[in-house]
Write a structure and sequence with these properties.
Blueprint lengths: L1 H6 L4 E6 L5 E6 L5 H12 L7 E7 L2 E4 L6 H15 L14 E7 L11 H17 L7 H16 L27 H14 L5 H12 L8 E7 L8 E7 L2 E5 L6 E5 L4 E6 L3 E6 L6 E6 L3 H26 L1
Parallel strand pairs: 1-5
Antiparallel strand pairs: 1-2, 3-4, 3-5, 6-7, 6-12, 7-8, 8-9, 10-11, 11-12
Helix pairs in contact: 4-7, 5-6, 5-7
Length: 325
């Protein structure tokens, strides 16, 4: 497909996957830049804006964000060539790496996200991207909030149907953060979730998604990308760290109790680098700064998110300056 497009100006339909488990085909040709592709998707889905959204290519074991200025097919070609060279696509049989890829469209930067202002974005993206992070236990969540959120998820799944109440104990792990499941017996959870559900009155599935997001949006970790890393440079910090990158900066969280140990705003991060097994970040200046060296295979993602958030921050600052000039 890629070769056909490079040799002649022909277009093909390309399947794009969304976080709510739907997909659609879009027409792309050799002149399609990632930015245009994003705009076309946004228009078809009726999104008010595609700010902070990105195309991602999932290939081998990586999910890589497509820079918005790149020609889409050029990016895919360079990516597959790079993977062939590094033999990352095929395990031991490196001669024939598996370089089939999928394209996803997702929210990447959450700087300007306000729940309730774009119902389609909330319903297709924000809800389905925030849900797995909640269930993995990344947020500091009380049992009381977990009950509220579980009742809303039940409504998203089953609407007003109360006949599925009996299945709550068996799907508990799909409703409650995994670190909280043991706080109560399955029957207690069920009783409380049913109680919370019955308080809602009649609500649509979309309303339930927005109510769910409004609870999480009050937390500082809303809209974060989370990374479980090991750090060796900072004796005051635990060895295992949960790093949350969001609009506030880089947050260092103690995974055992979800306490936020430090937030480093983007303005204080002086440089960073990443490799196949690490992510390295310098905070502050040479005299009064500190370094954080993390073991992780997702350094490329952390690196890309930092770069993207900082670019967005600088672009926003420049816009403000030119307005005030």
């Amino acid at each position: 497909e890629v070769e056909a497009i490079q040799s002649k100006k022909i277009s093909i339909y390309h399947k794009v996957y969304f976080p709510d488990d739907t997909d659609q085909a879009f027409e792309v040709d050799s002149g399609t830049r990632a930015k245009d592709f994003c705009q076309a998707i946004g228009a078809r889905l009726g999104l008010k804006s595609v700010e902070g959204m990105s195309l991602f290519v999932k290939i081998a074991d990586k999910v890589i964000s497509v820079p918005e200025g790149d020609f889409f097919f050029d990016f895919v070609r360079h990516l597959t060539e790079w993977l062939k060279k590094t033999k990352q696509g095929g395990g031991r049989d490196a001669a024939a790496p598996n370089l089939t890829y999928q394209v996803f469209f997702m929210k990447k930067l959450w700087s300007t996200t306000v729940v309730g202002t774009d119902v389609n974005a909330d319903s297709i993206f924000h809800y389905h991207q925030e849900l797995p992070k909640l269930l993995r236990g990344y947020h500091k969540c009380t049992a009381e909030d977990a009950v509220k959120l579980a009742a809303l998820q039940y409504r998203v799944r089953f609407g007003d149907n109360k006949k599925e109440f009996g299945s709550i104990p068996t799907i508990l792990k799909e409703l409650v953060p995994h670190d909280l499941v043991h706080e109560m017996s399955a029957d207690e959870w069920k009783k409380k979730i049913v109680g919370a559900f019955n308080k809602h009155g009649s609500k649509s599935k979309v309303d339930a998604k927005i109510m769910f997001l409004k609870v999480i949006a009050q937390w500082q970790t809303f809209g974060s990308a989370f990374f479980e890393v090991k750090q060796t440079t900072e004796p005051k910090l635990p060895e295992n760290l949960l790093i949350a990158i969001n609009k506030y900066g880089v947050n260092l969280i103690d995974p055992s109790n979800k306490e936020n140990l430090a937030t480093h705003p983007f303005t204080k991060i002086s440089n960073w680098s990443s490799g196949g097994t690490y992510f390295h970040m310098a905070i502050g200046n040479l005299v009064r700064g500190s370094k954080l060296l993390c073991e992780t295979t997702l350094g490329y993602k952390m690196d890309d998110l930092l770069t993207s958030y900082i670019s967005l921050m600088l672009a926003t600052m420049n816009k403000k300056k030119s307005r005030n000039a």
